[in-house]
Write a structure and sequence with these properties.
Layout lengths: L1 H24 L9 H5 L5 H7 L8 H27 L7 H28 L8 H25 L9 H21 L36 E7 L10 H6 L11 E6 L2 E4 L2 E2 L7 E4 L6 E4 L10 H4 L2 E2 L1
Parallel strand pairs: 1-2, 2-5, 3-6, 4-7
Helix pairs in contact: 4-5, 4-7, 5-6, 6-7
């Protein structure tokens, strides 16, 4: 009899769990909830609860803003730690200096990205326009990527062990910030009425090459340049096309689109942090390839081995 009862109870518990999960997924960001409820939507709920003010109820918007602002503060403290280490560079090896310099650059980028995110969400208790929502989501995701890149570079140098804990805590905080942002300001659905579909037929290949028609909803393209190694395009090198991108700080004129024709490009492409609204499209996997020969064994840092950086 006990066995039969346990078999009946289990599906009921499972049903309750799924109903609870569904209610969290549909949670309105403008109602007052506890920190525990908000943190249950993140990847690091325990860390999230330890950081948020306890014994209080607030909206998801409030929790999200708190985490983003706290992320800015943590990023600045981490940058100060990096600068402090670099001030004693005479005691460091060249690989250590290179790894720290990479982290310094990445930390500065993170501060810029987080400030932009904070400004976009400040006093906004509603979903953002889809363009802006996607841009901020990209920035907060990039913060996590930058953090991981810094961590990878420091793992090979032992004298920076004191930076590992701040790095791990930063990773958790940035992840929490991203999760709360996504639950608060990103539109849940993309209704046809909320979209401004624009289908543009883009001429990518020139001098008798095929046309590539790319349907791109909601994307405004100001100009298109073609990179091709055979000289049929506007540029033969990707870096030259990037250098030609206009200074477009607010995106009002649209994206500067760089189409890279299939081929193997042996170069290191770096997009400066002030260069914004640049879109790059290739011919697909194993078609458009950017390659190089730098390695950690040759004295390069993990960050500077990448053939493409922003």
């Amino acid at each position: 009899m006990a066995t039969t009862r346990s078999k009946l109870i289990f599906p009921i518990l499972v049903l309750i769990f799924f109903e609870f999960s569904a209610s969290l997924a549909e949670l309105s960001p403008d109602i007052l909830i506890s920190p525990e409820t908000a943190c249950s939507l993140t990847r690091y709920p325990d860390y999230c609860k330890s950081m948020l003010p306890s014994n209080s109820r607030a909206t998801m918007y409030d929790y999200g803003r708190f985490c983003i602002d706290h992320s800015i503060s943590l990023s600045r403290k981490f940058l100060s730690l990096i600068n402090s280490h670099l001030q004693h560079s005479s005691k460091l090896s060249n690989p250590e200096i290179q790894a720290l310099t990479d982290c310094q650059f990445l930390a500065e980028l993170n501060i810029d990205f987080l400030i932009t995110s904070s400004n976009a969400t400040s006093n906004v208790n509603a979903t953002l326009p889809i363009f802006q929502a996607d841009d901020i989501h990209t920035l907060l995701s990039a913060v996590l990527t930058n953090q991981q890149t810094c961590m990878d570079g420091l793992e090979a140098v032992s004298s920076t062990d004191s930076l590992h804990e701040p790095l791990y805590n930063g990773t958790k905080l940035y992840s929490v910030s991203l999760a709360l942002y996504a639950k608060s300001w990103v539109p849940k659905t993309r209704n046809a009425t909320s979209l401004k579909p624009r289908r543009k037929q883009l001429l990518f290949r020139r001098a008798g090459r095929r046309l590539l028609q790319l349907g791109m909803d909601q994307v405004n393209v100001s100009s298109i340049v073609v990179v091709s190694q055979d000289g049929s395009g506007d540029y033969a090198a990707i870096s030259d096309a990037v250098a030609a991108a206009p200074n477009n700080t607010d995106g009002t004129t649209g994206y500067f689109l760089i189409y890279v024709v299939a081929g193997v490009y042996e170069e290191y492409v770096s997009i400066a942090k002030y260069q914004k609204y640049i879109m790059m499209i290739g011919d697909g996997i194993n078609q458009t390839v950017i390659t190089g020969n730098r390695s950690v064994a040759d004295g390069w840092t993990t960050f500077n081995c990448g053939t493409f950086s922003k």
